[in-house]
Structure to design on (541 residues):
């Protein structure tokens, strides 16, 4: 049964993946930062699924403290081979005022890891929406977080595709800048493969949360909201935020 | 009928490079729960002193006075103009005195448009550009210029009016204030409509342009003369580009101006040479709102 679309939202397709976003005519500011949080929903995160959800809530609510909070549009994706198409939007690009973080569903992880597909879906969605905003005279930049506890094992997309789509977007000035961050949680054994993914997909930063304890995930939430604020404040500078907080966990 | 307003002012390259503050100011407001809207701009004299302060004061005081008037009466042009300008000048004189502004500080133009569903008017003290865009896509734009880059400033009514009149030849009946009006078709073709010279006396009293066809209008706006000083872009083209709003929610004018300046610079020009300000009232008609 199709999901009923909030009348403030519109549906689109990018890179073969659907995405939803706030209708342009509902946006009143001059510029926006598109924030995408991509979360591993595979079987291996089951032991800390509750803490992961709480970290998401903390991260989103932390963004409300930013002086640029009204200029953020946030999208949350989860990925797992158990999901239809491997990717599911918890919600599309929405203003903070339209998000009640307490509405995030209980996490029910399972399945294998379409990490590359998820990053590709995130980036193509960001770029497609950014282009619409740019075409309507908005200023746009973006930041994406890929949270995973394991390496990819089922994707169709490749790291090279992710890198290419981002390079093309920057060259075409589809948005002012796009910062991408790969966050490893409880993934020490996959560090080499994840760093290879980072390199091949030209992801800007690799952050290792180490163990998925409540404290570390809470720190991750703080990192996400601080980095998001930093990128939002970099708007208009012509480049990405230079001082994404280096995270130690 | 619903009014939506927005305004924007940006620093011109000349001031940016010389360290002079932006001397333009713009403001737009809606009064009486949406019954009346006004849009105002002011441009301070570059060779004056704290004229950026005067630009802000005169716009704020004029907007406040318009708001006060609309609770007292309707916008019949002549009566409204007389009341608004005299009240504003009286209050502004007190404010200037309190802020210890000197005669070299109080040199700034003031252009505004105010509208209700029954009509309204443009008022010009100084120079600049007036814009009316119709629902059929036609745009009428009027440019007002003073000779020798010496426009009238309302502050002269307080200090220096005799000197100003003498500077312009001491003949109040001399037709020295030039206006040229152009019509732009929806396709972008510009046709000269009319040109007219107003007398020095009319310029000093303030030029009044009634608006009686609100039902036919989509947008009205006022801009400072910075609109006529955009590197490599004719002022009529600049008007066309600046009112080509891609989206109309919230800060519609700020978005367009930002992109307009970026595009002007990207096209190899330097963008606005002088400070540039614009204030706009969009008119949403009932039939359009029910269709959307």
């Amino acid at each position: 049964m199709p999901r009923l679309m909030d009348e403030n939202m519109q549906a689109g397709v990018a890179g073969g993946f659907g995405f939803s976003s706030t209708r342009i005519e509902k946006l009143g500011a001059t510029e926006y930062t598109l924030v995408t949080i991509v979360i591993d929903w595979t079987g291996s995160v089951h032991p800390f699924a509750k803490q992961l959800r709480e970290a998401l809530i903390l991260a989103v609510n932390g963004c409300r403290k930013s002086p640029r909070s009204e200029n953020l549009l946030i999208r949350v994706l989860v990925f797992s081979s158990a999901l239809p198409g491997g990717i599911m939007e918890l919600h599309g690009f929405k203003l903070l005022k339209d998000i009640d973080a307490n509405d995030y569903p209980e996490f029910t992880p399972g399945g294998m890891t379409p990490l590359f597909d998820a990053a590709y879906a995130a980036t193509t969605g960001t770029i497609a929406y950014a282009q619409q905003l740019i075409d309507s005279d908005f200023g746009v930049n973006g930041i994406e977080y890929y949270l995973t506890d394991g390496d990819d094992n089922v994707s169709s997309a490749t790291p090279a595709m992710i890198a290419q789509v981002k390079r093309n977007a920057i060259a075409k000035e589809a948005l002012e800048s796009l910062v991408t961050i790969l966050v490893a949680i409880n993934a020490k054994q996959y560090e080499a493969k994840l760093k290879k993914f980072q390199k091949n997909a030209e992801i800007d930063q690799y952050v290792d949360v180490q163990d998925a304890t409540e404290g570390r995930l809470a720190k991750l939430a703080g990192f996400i909201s601080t980095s998001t604020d930093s990128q939002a404040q970099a708007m208009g500078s012509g480049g990405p935020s230079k001082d994404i907080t280096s995270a130690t966990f | 009928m619903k009014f939506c307003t927005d305004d924007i002012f940006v620093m011109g390259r000349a001031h940016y490079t010389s360290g002079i503050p932006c001397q333009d100011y713009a403001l737009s407001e809606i009064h009486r729960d949406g019954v009346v809207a006004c849009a105002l701009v002011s441009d301070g004299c570059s060779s004056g002193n704290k004229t950026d302060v005067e630009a802000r004061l005169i716009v704020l005081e004029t907007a406040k006075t318009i708001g006060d008037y609309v609770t007292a009466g309707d916008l019949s042009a002549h009566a409204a103009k007389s009341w608004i300008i005299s009240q504003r000048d009286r209050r502004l004189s007190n404010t200037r005195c309190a802020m210890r502004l000197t005669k070299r500080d109080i040199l700034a133009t003031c252009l505004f448009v105010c509208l209700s569903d029954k009509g309204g008017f443009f008022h010009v003290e100084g120079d600049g550009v007036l814009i009316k865009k119709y629902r059929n896509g036609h745009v009428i734009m009027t440019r007002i210029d003073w000779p020798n880059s010496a426009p009238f400033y309302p502050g002269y009514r307080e200090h220096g009016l005799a000197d100003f009149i003498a500077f312009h030849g001491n003949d109040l009946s001399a037709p020295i204030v030039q206006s040229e009006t152009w019509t732009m078709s929806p396709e972008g073709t510009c046709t000269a409509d009319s040109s007219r010279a107003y007398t020095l006396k009319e310029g000093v009293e303030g030029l009044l342009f009634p608006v009686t066809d609100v039902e036919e209008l989509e947008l009205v706006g006022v801009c400072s003369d910075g609109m006529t000083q955009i590197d490599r872009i004719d002022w009529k083209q600049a008007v066309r580009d600046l009112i080509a709003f891609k989206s109309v929610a919230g800060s519609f004018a700020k978005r367009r101006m930002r992109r307009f300046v970026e595009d002007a610079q990207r096209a190899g020009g330097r963008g606005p040479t002088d400070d540039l300000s614009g204030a706009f009232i969009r008119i949403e008609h009932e039939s359009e709102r029910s269709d959307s």
Observations:
- Chain B touches chain A through twelve residues (CB under 8 Å).
- The CA atoms of residues 132 and 220 of chain B lie 5 Å apart.
- The radius of gyration of chain B is 18 Å.
